[in-house]
C-alpha cells in the first residue's frame, strides 16, 4: 500500500456543512470513503492556515486515491491536493539509484 497526504480545503458550501454536522462526522465520512477504495485512514486533522484539513491514508494504488480526490472535488464541498508520501527506506533505495542526467547548459 502507498501512503498519501490529502490537503483538503472546504468551499463555502463545505464550511456550511461543517457547521451543521461537525468535524467528527467529516472524519467518519473520510474513513468510510477511504475504506471504499480499499484504503485505510491513518490520521485526520483540521488546521489553521492555507489548508483546512490534512488527511493521511494508505491506498492500494495511485488510481484509488485519484478517484477519491476527484470525487471529493467534484462534490463541490471541498478541493483536494494530493501528495505521495515515502518511507525513509524508500528514500534510501532511491538514493542508491544512479539515473543518467545532464543539467541544462552543461
Describe this structure in words.
This protein has 106 residues and is of the alpha+beta class. It has a single domain, classed as 2-Layer Sandwich (Alpha-Beta Plaits). Helices cover 43% and strands 29% of the residues. The chain contains four helices and four strands. It has a four-stranded antiparallel β-sheet. A hairpin with a 6-residue loop joins strand 2 and strand 3. The longest helix is centred in the first third of the chain and has 14 residues. The radius of gyration is 17 Å and the shape is elongated.
The third-level CATH topology is Alpha-Beta Plaits
Unreliable spans are none
Largest sheet report: 4 strands, antiparallel
CATH class: Alpha Beta
Rounded radius of gyration (Å): 17 Å
| End-to-end Cα distance | 39 Å
List keywords for this structure.
106 residues; alpha+beta; Alpha-Beta Plaits; elongated
Gist of the model:
This protein is of the alpha+beta class and 106 residues long.
SSE layout:
Blueprint lengths: L1 E9 L1 H10 L1 H14 L3 E7 L6 E7 L2 H14 L2 E8 L2 H8 L11
Antiparallel strand pairs: 1-3, 1-4, 2-3
